[in-house]
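Re: weekly structure request thread

Next one in the queue (197 aa):
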Amino acid sequence: MRLIVGMTGATGVIYGVRLLQRLKEAGVDTHLVISKWGARTLLHETPFTREQVEALATEVYQPNDMGAAIASGSFQASGMIIAPCSVKTLGAIAHGYGDSLVHRAADVTLKEKRRLLLAVREAPLSEIHLENMLKLARMGAVILPPMPAFYMNPRTLDEVIDHTVLRMLDQFGIEVPGAPRWDGDMGVNPSASRERS
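Done, posted below.
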């Protein structure tokens, strides 16, 4: 499998890093483009350097290289994930404004009827954001904001991040060994019962 991965300047860039780590573990061929502000946010929010993150990918492209392979519909890929996806990127894709490689690669993914997943990171959401999400969802894009889930009783921030990334991978049928799955057990959270005693 081959996936295009975009990382833009919204907060939550760790989702893109973890996604690349998991895709590498799964043996997926990844083609990465990090926007200018994605690279800046990476330095602000994580201990990772751009070089360390790029080393996780199979191929790396510069954000303004409109002649890159992933800018063409003839480039064969199973789809594209943008994590995190800024609302600027969301708006650009929704309106076909391909002024960067991330936007162009997403536009190509849509026009070729391949799966496009957008991990939109913004709060609260304005009517403009919601309209852009709806527009893209109607075109077939998957809108998957990185919302923390607590029914698995996560103990660490890493587990919260992993849960969302694994949900992203589910959209492409990528199975990660050992990934926790809901089994329907509505038992008492062990840590909660310890606190009561």
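Residues 2-196 form a domain with the Rossmann fold fold (CATH 3.40.50.1950). The mean pLDDT is 93.
Next request, please.
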